[in-house]
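Worked Example 4.2. Consider the chain below.
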Amino acid sequence: MKILLAEDTRDLNRVITVALQHEGYEVDPVYDGEEASAHAFQNGYDLIVLDIMMPKKSGIEVLREIRSANSVTPVLLLTARAEVDDRVSGLDAGAD
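Applying the procedure from the previous section yields the following structure tokens:
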């Protein structure tokens, strides 16, 4: 399974990447929304994991671009936000 991981906090990105690789997944780590958007459209992923708060482009913006291209690739959002409105925004944008 090939996973795109977009998380701007480098230490957290590395920890998640190593954990997923240890479980046998192939992971492409990126660190901002522009990289995430470019990778999402250049490579075939089985899963995309997006941090909501990233530089250059938010995870929600990237998700909307992915869904507007009619991609059905599952997308999970990472966030430190706990408000219901934040979760609803992610689901409305097309998160799984």
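The chain has a mean pLDDT of 91. The CA atoms of residues 5 and 16 lie 8 Å apart. Compare this with Example 4.1 before moving on.
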